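Researcher: Go.
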Amino acid sequence: MEYDKYLEFLETKKQSIEPSGFDVSDDQLNEKLFLFQKYCVKRALKAGRFALFEDCGLGKTFQQLEWAQKVMEHTNAPVLILAPLGVIGQTVKEGERFGYVVTEIRATEPDMTAGIYITNYDNIDNIDPSIFSGIVLDESSILKNFNGKMRTQLIEDYQFTRYKLCCTATPSPNDTTELCNHAEFLNIMTRTEMLAMYFVHDGGSTSAWRLKGHAKQRFWDYVSTWAVMLNKPSDIGFSDDGYDLPPLNLIEETVIMPKRDNGLLFNDTAVNATDYHKELRLSYTERLERAAQIVNDHPDENFIVWIGQDAEGKMIRQLIPDAVEVKGSDTKEYKQDKLLGFAKGDFRVLVTKLKIAQFGLNYQNCHNQIFASLDFSFEATYQGIRRSYRFGQTEAVNIYLITTDTMQNVRDSIEQKQKAFKEMQSLMTVAMSRNIKNQISLQKMEVSKEYKSDYCHIRLGDCVKLVKDIPDESIGFSVFSPPFAELYTYSDKLEDMGNSKDYQEFFTAFKFIVAELYRIMWSGRNVAVHCMDLPVHKGKEGYIGIRDFSGLILQAFQEVGFIYHSRVTIWKNPVTAMQRTKAIGLLHKQVKKDSAMSRVGLPDYLMVFRKPGNHDHPVKCDISVDTWQQWASPVWMDINPTNTLNAASGRGENDEKHICPLQLDVIDRAVHLWSNEGDTVFTPFLGIGSEVYQSILAGRKGIGFELKESYFNEAIKNVKRAEQQINVPTLFDL
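Model: Structure:
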């Protein structure tokens, strides 16, 4: 019965999205939509909460208008589109073109009847979210900032809105966790849950999250259940007719700066993010003169000149007399008028910043752009380029990238991020194809493999399943280190407890094996669990602290009937931890800055639990009084952290770097203290075989289960090595 519940639990771990929308047929949709656009709109309406990650020029505005129209008709209630300021006018005109009535909300709300309404993100404080049955986030990458006020307000204000649609071209490739914010806004999964399930933190920056090695394709498989990502229709099986882009010419213009007094023969060729704006100020005359020269050499062609600072705009207008600048300090009306005016051909040269005009605007009338202040943001640069380089453009697009010899690493950074973006698109495209063919599912354990000898019996597979074969009251001692929830990922298996979205899901799985441990242990005997409390990261939880992981383990054992027997604290060097994790609480500079945030290092624990009942198998531990006094200490100061079996050869190409076999010193003491020679020692998490290895050397028989095949293969080598050691004849034998 318990195993049946476990199988039911595994089914709940499969990540799938229950549709909350409604079906429409092709003939119910706007006949002007292309077939691939109809497919995307139908999926979005069926899901109810969905994301369109489509490249620029694929008609996201048309699709979101049709989605909003159908939601409005279905609910007979208003639907809201939130958009960047410069996009509002274009969206209203696009609506007129395709037969939709789109009403702009300015400072306050009009009388709200069923219809499509649009307003700027900056106006959301004047909007009552409860009025709307549906919400569209145009250029939804505004959700990128985890700590941003806008991101938080959008998620909170529209938490209970039934129909939601996010639209953007470029979820940031160097911050894949942006997708976590999309998922949370869409009520798919909280950011915290998604980070735990698919990401690992490398320490240092609060944003230093990356996809776990094993989770890459699985993550994109999951995203493809609530989003589409495509850069051309064929990505989802449709024709690319009419979507062939003209050539894109990237023309790098490197300005050589005067020799700096830096003590070297040449100028520095790299600039960090801190000194970036300083370098712009030092080089703006040379950069802007070159930009103006390019524009003035082509007097009959339109240009967009992207700048980074207001002072640059002033100088460019002096160098290019017919240039019109749009600044952040301009009125909303002026910005809208000029941004749309350039698209209509009212003037030849537009000068502005990426943060003002990088999103949503259609500038196919212009096929020349100059990045006079190239920065580290691939997303902003990409979006800027795609204002001109988009479907509907008939001319080859010329992109001039003006850099200096002192900022070469900026270009290198963008190239690296572009590579990551292409990888992201590729993985998502594969996932979309599999999703369409109904081929997406998490892998289950199917293989069966074992090694058996007079000294041990180890098996490859899920410990909760395999432990059923161990008889009641047959194990003398158990020692193991459980997967540390959300820290590492060891496999892509559904049964892997490390593949959990949160601690509740982890301990739901963990309690199944704890219950089996209670069944198979001799009464009066012990289970020793190696663990540590875990840091809470601000980038994930929103605060810095410590999670009482050992306390949660204690609760799990007590719930099934074990007695809390003992706890050993294993000392660890805090300097080593500081160097590895860069944890703010361990930094000496934090003591000087604000020691309220300083903390001690995190030790390991060996937590020991005893099964109650008649003790028919007393343990006779033959150690000296001096040894006993040392081992009886509540803190073991002399554990060698490097005395472990070598895990390197068991590591797969997608494994994370933290492969942590339990120290052999700890296992040896535990086995001698709480078991007799000839007893059976069990570990449900075999890893590379440390517990069984040390048990064999101590004259016990080992049983262990391991989920990951490469670890299991390494465990076989290690236990065989232990068997060889105890069978080597001594001098007296000879």
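Model: The first strand starts at residue 49 and ends at 54.
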